[in-house]
Specification:
2 strands; single chain; mainly alpha; globular; 50% helix
Length: 103
């Protein structure tokens, strides 16, 4: 995924860490779709390697994702944005098996 696409997922300033729950409906929906893609591509690998956050029966769910998964993926997207801005000649992506390790 190109850094420019990732950058459009979050519209707030990089300096302020934004929570998933504070995203606009449009940005939240875009993030949910990106997490769907991540789960299809890297979810099985992450699960096989024990890299997914714990899920309990009481875990809140939004469109099939736990709030914890959404927040962790959102944090990773923000980290990717920061890295891309600090290193414009490098390529960064949240699409890897480690994306949900952020907390």
């Amino acid at each position: 995924m190109k850094a420019s696409v990732v950058i459009t997922l979050v519209t707030s300033a990089i300096a302020a860490r934004q929570s998933y729950e504070s995203l606009s409906k449009t940005d939240a929906t875009a993030l949910e779709h990106e997490l769907d893609k991540w789960k299809a591509l890297y979810g099985p690998i992450a699960q096989a390697n024990g890299l997914l956050p714990p899920v309990t029966v009481d875990s809140a769910r939004i469109n099939g994702h736990t709030v914890e998964e959404l927040q962790r993926f959102h944090d990773t997207v923000q980290d990717v944005q920061e890295a891309a801005l600090a290193n414009p000649d490098a390529q960064f992506s949240p699409f890897n098996q480690f994306a949900l390790l952020t907390n």
